Records
---
Amino acid sequence: MIGRLKGVLVSKQPPWLMVDVNGVGYELEAPMSTFYDLPETGREVTLCTHYAVKEDSVALYGFLREAERSLFRHVQKVSGIGAKIALAILSGASVEEFARLVQGGDVAALTRIPGIGKKTAERIIVELRDRVDALGGGVPGISPGGAVPHDPVTEASVALQQLGYKPAEISRLVKDAAAPGDSAEAIIRKALRAALR
């Protein structure tokens, strides 16, 4: 089991990042909440990790904060929620904001997260309401391993597509969020906030 990685951040292309630990490159998938606070490439980073083994795949997920990893693990205990939706939750809301939505029973806000329908949102509220305090409070044809787009709008669009948003929704969110000089992270952050409204 891999619980923590400390090394040099080699690349970051949402939702993927690579960390070089003594010459071994670990590829991880991470939520946008982690991407917002990552250092520049070439700098040292320490990540809490979650190692997942399925019958047909092995995956490694990275988080800057233990609270994010804890939430990622807790929400997957809810029936119908896997890693993809867990990452979308962390990309669309902070741990504190998610806790507030669950405690407040805000089904409407939860259903704005890609992959969560009304029944799943209701299950999340029922199953996590008592445990939430313990938590701490498109662009087709570009694969995660492909070339990193240099245009912030394109980068943001790719990231939103990876999070499960539909092309028409991505176009609207990015158009409304993008301002001249914005980085991809800034566009994604504003787009995800707008999607939750």
Note: The beta strands are 4-13, 16-21, 24-29, 44-53, 58-63.
---
Amino acid sequence: MNTPLPVKVSHLFQVPQQRFVAAALIHHAFWTTVPGASVETMAARLLRASQADRVPLCLVALHEGELVGVVNLVDDDDEDHAEWTPWLAGMVVRQDCRGRGVGSALVRELLVHARRLGFERVYFGTDGPGFYTRLGAVVHEQPRADFWFMRFDLGD
């Protein structure tokens, strides 16, 4: 790991000027091949994360006032598993800031909020489980060789 990058994690609604930056980061990481998806539609979706006491939540990592990462807590992220809720979704760290603790800080803070909201688990899907297992996630299901559904168990 490179030198840790000091970040401040905030709710996106606390720094609304960062909404389009966050939307662009998420869109370019996950949505470029989805017909009709755009940075603008993602920015509109992020407006739903408008309070700290309910899902959806959007947390952003800021370094010297600049957005370097984002993560979301949403009700669901897979229509085939509606019973799994909530989901960690759209976790992205800017390419030049990866490997410096930004993603870990975002995930840990998201889990604090999920516990505070009374959730026992947080689910997510990934093609790279190593990062998340280092943070305490466990495999929930592996539907294919290159993809995992995982979860964080939030019990004491």
Note: The chain has four helices and seven strands.
---
Amino acid sequence: MESIALFKALADKTRFELLKLLLTGDLCVGALAYRLKISEAAVSQHLKQLRKAGLVKGEKRGYWTHYFVEKNRLNDLGKVLDELTHLAPRPATGCLRNIDGKIRTKKEEKTMCASKCQRPEKLKGNPKECTPKQIEKCHGSKKDHPCVGKTKK
């Protein structure tokens, strides 16, 4: 996935700071090193990663190369993040909790396992109807099953 490479490039604090500096204006390696108080070699290595991800480009100006941000790539990343916030909810498979803590199924509201089951899709019906095999799949062992011997509403 292309956006993963962008996230990886931005995951480093120094690269993120480089990008922020470059958003204020085009700068050469020496100016970036001076502002970040790191070596020019370190700046070059970080710029290499940002260039590889397509986030920055360099332009030769006389003796020095000045770097600038590819803002379209950042905008694309912003769109990816925006799309994540608009994903459709997953289909109701297994039990899902309502805001009030009640559990609902695809067809009707009913109490299934009002404990905090880690794998509610492994349960069938009422918690007291769980077979030992289901309990083991859901919780690891019967002694760890929070529903055993309890009535939840």
Note: The radius of gyration is 27 Å.
---
Amino acid sequence: MNNHTSDPAAFMPLLRELVTAYQAFEAYAIPHIKQLGLTPAQFDVIATLGNTEGMTFKRLGERTLLYKTTLTSVVDRLEAMGYVQRIPCPDDRRSTIARLTGQGEALFEEVFPRHRDYLARRFGRLTEAEIADGIRFLRRMRQAFSDNA
């Protein structure tokens, strides 16, 4: 028995809740990121590169929420600020690795735990079971939109 639906009346309330939940998340998270002295895109790159040896721009683009053109300009700005450096990829001369500098690592170690703890205040309102259910549901939703579904 197939319980799948293509009826817009069935999935539009879900879409509305997904969008408004994300808007509520951003309304809570973004002002705090700005208080830390970063834009959301800069925070995304710093958080993604933190505790790594760096990654290619292709991988960084896959791991962040940024478009390629935006990613390049964000890394340019972070590089100018002394937080990120570009390194030629030893395995592929066509690729470049973005890596946090010592100053960038220090920034990551300062802002990431502060923001994680800030978010924990709201995620702490959920039970462990609700968090696990949310992860399962969002993973399934992502799979529904992937080409491999």
Note: The mean pLDDT is 93.
